[in-house]
Structure formats: C-alpha cells, structure tokens
Amino acid sequence: MTFCEKGYPSSLSYSYLEEIAKEFELQFGRDMDRVERPYAFIKFDTFIQKTKRVYLDTRTSRNIDRLKDDLHDVQQIFRSNLEEILGRGEKLETLNAHSSALRSESKKYQEKAVMLNRISMLKTYAPLVAIFLMIVIYLYWKLS
C-alpha cells in the first residue's frame, strides 16, 4: 500500500509498488520463511527510499516514459476493442441480410406451395366437376 497526492498518476503508483515487490522478491524471496526477528529486512529500506526519490517527481523522463508506455498500451487495447466491435457490427449486418433473404425466400416458397396445392386440387376434382356438370346439363336438356 502506498499513499500519494490526489493528482499523482495511479499508473506510477502501481509501477512503484510493482518495482518494490519485484526487488524484494529478488533479494529476500528465499529468506522469508527463515525470518525470526521483526526487522530482518530493515536494509531493504534504502532501496525503498531510492525508488521513492525516483518516483517522487512525475516529470522525470523515466516516469514520463512509463506513462507513455502505459498510454500506448491503453491505446492498443482500445483500438483492438474498437476493431472487435466494428467486426461484430459487420457480422450482425451480414446476419441481418441473410435473415431478410431467408424471410423473402420463405414467403415465395409459401406462395408457391399454396398455388401448387390449388393446382393439385383442381387436377383432382376438375374431372369430377366436369362430369357432374355434363350430367346436370344432359338432364336439364332431356327434361326440358
């Protein structure tokens, strides 16, 4: 945990803590289990103070370079996310076009099915209706 001013960049705070953690792990990582006294790592304070002086001024070239690198990383992530969103939009547009085409084709299929159903019914019942009409006309003609 670290305390800093409100205007201090949070990315530098995290970098400061990461650098201290890495160095502590390098120097004392294997000795941590064997520590018996509370202030066994007091000599690490000099590294903390040196690192603190480096990070104290946010305008040093090292800190500005870190901020630029962080900003560049954020821009890359933003670009890739934006490209993914645009790609999804294109896929949705393609899917919408396919669904519209499928809807129109299914409507045409339905219309053709109704027409074929009517033709089939006409072929089935037209001869019977024709024979029935001939019989009715014949009987009308005979009886009149």
Strand content: under 5%
Distance between the termini: 116 Å
Low-pLDDT sequence parts: none
Mean pLDDT: 84
Helix content: over 70%
Total DSSP helices: 3
The helix-and-strand class reads mainly alpha
The succession of helices and strands, N to C, reads HHH
Radius of gyration: 42 Å
Report the count of strand segments: 0
**Shape assignment:** rod-shaped
What does the main sheet amount to?
A: none
SSE layout:
Layout: H1 10-28, H2 45-56, H3 61-143
Helix pairs in contact: 1-2
What attributes does this structure have?
144 residues, mainly alpha, rod-shaped
How would you describe the overall organization of this protein?
This protein has 144 residues and is mainly α. Helix content is 79%, strand content 0%.
Short description:
This protein is mainly α.
